[in-house]
Amino acid sequence: MKALLSVTFFTALLTALRMLAGFVTAKVVAIYAGPSGIAMVGQLQNLVNGLAGLMNSPVGSSVVRFTAENHEDGYTSCAPWWRVSLRGVICLSILIMPVIGYFSREVSIWLFGDAEFSWLVMVTVFTLPFTAIGTLVTSVINGQQKYKQFVCLGMLSVLISSSVMLFLVISKGLVGALLAAAIQNGLIGIAILVFALRQPWFKIKYWFGAVDRHRVKIISGYILMAVASAITMPMAMIYIRKILVAYVGWEVTGYWQSVWKISEAYLAIVTLSLSTYYFPQLSKLHTYAEIKKEINSTAKVIMPIVLFMAVGIYLFRDVAISLLFTEKFKAARDLFAIQLIGDVIKIFSWLYAYPMLSRGAVKWFVPSEIIFAVSLTLLCWLFVRNYGVQGANIAYCVNYILYLLFVIFNIKKFAR
């Protein structure tokens, strides 16, 4: 419990910096690009997140888990897992980059309804390997549970990304905001790589060499899970915006996006704590009783924090809108209540869902990601038709209620 509170404190510092940087950049983007610009940046960010998720799939949860399990026995024990993960990134780079680059025009039309921004798709593709390297390094540090180092790297990332965004938005307006969204993850990856060059575990002998089929098979399961996450939710978000644009227009979609951004910002305190402490902790456990005990003890700390933040955001939503955006976004105040209820339910469901990742339950995780991403999109289409932009929040809330029921009723099966 003390360790969780300590990690939550340090990750809260990082998240506070992220929130401050996010608020400043959101304000600047709102001033220079308006509600429609916010929505367009959201579209590109989902593409970036989706492609980065694909490229990061071999070096995310799998590296954290097997580093956490083996690092006490020395780097040599971790090396076989690291080699498989790095080889996966190389193979995916060869597959993904040429394909997305070739279809950049079509991707631009799909995102924005215009081929004008195909060059942004090309820029995004070029930065993907650097993004993956950055994720690889932070996963190793997370797996070793070096929380302070992890937080310091996170702060460096925030400073780089926010500086790039502010400079480009102020100098180039909407185009600058889109360009910043495309390149900032790659720039962060380069900075983290420079840091890693001095680490004792970042030596060629640990990363290149023979790999065995058994480990390839296990890592492949994690790749499949990460690919499912990388594709399903970003795709769902892109289609949700397309649904909203079709029914209520770009400007109102921008109101919804602004509320979503605020949710992302405050929930980052919790999600970062879960990925930094909770996931490595679950990776060390082997029985359902141990896992259930960890879920309960974590929930006692996390859920009151989430409830407190959600209530605070709701009470001060007008202040948040004024500080983060402009008067043009005032109508967004009516979109908070249901969104915040959905946020609380989402975090509670994630506490029960994380064992799917820690146990490598591919057969449970992948179908659930696909099914609930599709259901979110369909529910959004259904509710937006009847309730306008508020329907997207209703769909979000209902979908996570269904997901919570799913993980609670099935946890014994995937946490074995």
From TrEMBL:
InterPro entries per UniProt: Poly_Biosynth_Transport, WzxE
The keyword tRNA processing is annotated on this UniProt entry: no
GO biological process: enterobacterial common antigen biosynthetic process
Alphabetical UniProt keywords: Cell membrane, Membrane, Transmembrane, Transmembrane helix
Amino-acid biosynthesis in keyword set: no
Membrane-topology annotation of the record: Multi-pass membrane protein
Protein name: Polysaccharide transporter, PST family
